[in-house]
């Protein structure tokens, strides 16, 4: 299987997800900020909301079995001695202030399910002498890596709370056969840098957007820009963002709905002058940096066509802030002009409707196609709303919860 992603909106063929489990119920409210949560999540409702989202994916994807659960991939990977040694030694190196080093032998000897339980929940009955915080952010699989053309960027966590998740993804990418086509095209991040997948948007095979955010540093950007430009990518566009929790990644304020339409949070993208830098490799092999006038103007100039920026939250500033807070800008495209997002962001869906999208609830969409294969209607744009009242407490939407590894190339 050849993994590749050439755009944000090419028809989805394979994606990695994680349905929330016991780990979200182990978040102590007194530790929630350390674990990067603004609130605590009710596991049962969050699980059902996530499963409802996945049900949409399975209906519209050519092969429903290519919705991969990261824990299933990890189970298959950690059964290999080489991968288990790699993960254990990297975990010891990454957590020098814990007693993990003294437990190396026990970790290597754990049954695979027990090891995975320890990784995700921070505890295992076989290791009573060791207890770590849980890893409740694992359902935000987007941050763990990014497939860009025929490369994979293995993210490096900005916060210690997410180190185990990122290391688990790196282990899967290094050792699971699903990633064999990318094994020679892995882009690593320097140990002193941080880059997270929510800051990486694949505009086209030749253009990649990277947010310099609370979670992705300038040095992290530089570490991937040079490597991307040695592959098929011609331009890396850097967007300097406010370094704040409310807009931790670029995709919390800007996403693509179709090749020509974007959802943008106006105060951060439309009304504010962004510091835009374009890194390009010229014929002589040297990398040149130019300044962009604005994100919209820069993208239109590089793409050679006009883009429509649809306002997250509509025209009212209060609604814009409220719906950005509940991930209104963080929609996920299953195909060009075919998106999913939280139903609670009603003003954003109203904006999509004004731009020609049919807005439909998940239940009605699945009922329409019940018992028959999904066939998209040519030229029709659709926005599917699904409930995410518990999921959004973790501060991430549909794009945050998905790691695409295969998208069909769009016809231009």
Notes on the structure:
This protein is an alpha/beta fold and 412 residues long. The protein has one domain: L-arginine/glycine Amidinotransferase, Chain A (5-stranded Propeller), CATH 3.75.10.10. Helix content is 30%, strand content 21%. The protein is built from 13 helices and 18 strands. It has helices spanning 22-25, 43-60, 70-78, 81-94, 104-109, 112-121, 163-175, 218-228, 266-269, 295-303, 317-325, 346-354, 362-368; strands at 12-17, 67-69, 145-148, 151-154, 186-187, 200-204, 207-212, 235-240, 254-258, 261-264, 275-281, 287-292, 308-311, 332-335, 338-342, 357-361, 381-386, 403-407. A five-stranded mixed sheet has the order 6-7-8-11-12, sandwiched between helices. Strands 14-15-17-16 form a four-stranded mixed sheet, sandwiched between helices. Strands 2-1-18 form a three-stranded mixed sheet. Strand 3 (145-148) and strand 4 form a beta hairpin. Helix 3 (70-78) crosses helix 7 (163-175). The longest helix has 18 residues, at 43-60. The radius of gyration is 21 Å and the shape is globular. The two termini are 24 Å apart. The model has no long low-confidence stretch (mean pLDDT 93).
DSSP summary: helix tally:
13
Provide the spatial order of strands within the biggest beta sheet: 6-7-8-11-12
Poorly predicted runs are: none
Radius of gyration: 21 Å
| CATH architecture name | 5-stranded Propeller
Q: In angstroms, what separates the terminal alpha carbons?
A: 24 Å
How large a portion of the residues is in β-strands, by DSSP E?
15-25%
Q: Give the CATH topology.
A: L-arginine/glycine Amidinotransferase, Chain A
- By secondary-structure content and strand pairing, the structural class works out as alpha/beta
Largest pleated sheet:
5 strands, mixed
- Counted up, domains total 1
The level-1 CATH class: Alpha Beta
Helicity, as a percent range: 25-40%
């Amino acid at each position: 299987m050849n993994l590749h992603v050439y755009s944000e909106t090419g028809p989805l063929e394979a994606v990695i997800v994680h349905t929330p489990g016991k780990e979200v119920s182990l978040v102590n409210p007194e530790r929630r900020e350390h674990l990067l949560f603004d609130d605590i999540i009710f596991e049962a409702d969050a699980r059902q909301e996530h499963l409802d989202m996945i049900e949409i994916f399975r209906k519209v994807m050519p092969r429903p079995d290519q919705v991969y659960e990261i824990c299933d991939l990890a189970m298959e990977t950690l059964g290999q001695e080489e991968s288990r040694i790699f993960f254990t030694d990297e975990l010891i190196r990454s957590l020098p202030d814990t007693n993990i080093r003294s437990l190396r032998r026990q970790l290597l000897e754990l049954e695979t399910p027990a090891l995975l339980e320890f990784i995700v929940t921070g505890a295992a009955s076989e290791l009573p002498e060791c207890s770590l915080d849980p890893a409740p952010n694992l359902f935000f699989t987007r941050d763990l890596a990014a497939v860009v053309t025929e490369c994979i960027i293995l993210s490096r966590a900005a916060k210690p709370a997410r180190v185990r998740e990122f290391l688990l993804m790196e282990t899967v990418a290094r050792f699971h056969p699903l990633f064999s086509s990318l094994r020679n095209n892995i882009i690593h991040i320097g140990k002193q840098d941080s880059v997270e997948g929510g800051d990486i948007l694949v505009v086209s095979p030749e253009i990649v957007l990277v947010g310099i955010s609370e979670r992705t540093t300038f040095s992290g950007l530089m570490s991937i820009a040079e490597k991307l430009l040695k592959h098929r990518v011609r331009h890396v566009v850097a967007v300097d963002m406010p370094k704040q929790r409310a807009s931790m990644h670029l995709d919390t304020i800007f996403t693509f709905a179709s090749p020509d339409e974007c959802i943008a949070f106006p105060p951060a993208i439309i009304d504010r002058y962004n510091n835009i830098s374009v890194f390009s490799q010229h014929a002589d092999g040297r990398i040149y940096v130019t300044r962009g006038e604005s994100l919209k103007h820069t993208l239109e100039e590089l793409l050679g066509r006009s883009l429509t920026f649809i306002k997250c939250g509509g025209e009212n500033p209060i609604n814009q802030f409220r719906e950005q807070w509940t991930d209104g800008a963080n929609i996920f495209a299953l195909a060009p002009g075919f998106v999913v997002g939280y139903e609670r962001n009603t003003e954003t869906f109203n904006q999509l409707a004004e731009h020609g999208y049919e807005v439909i609830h998940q239940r009605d969409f699945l009922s329409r196609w019940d018992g028959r294969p999904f066939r998209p209607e040519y030229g029709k744009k659709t926005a599917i709303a699904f409930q995410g009242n518990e999921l959004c407490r973790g501060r991430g939407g549909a794009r945050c919860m998905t790691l695409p590894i295969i998208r069909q190339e769009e016809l231009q």
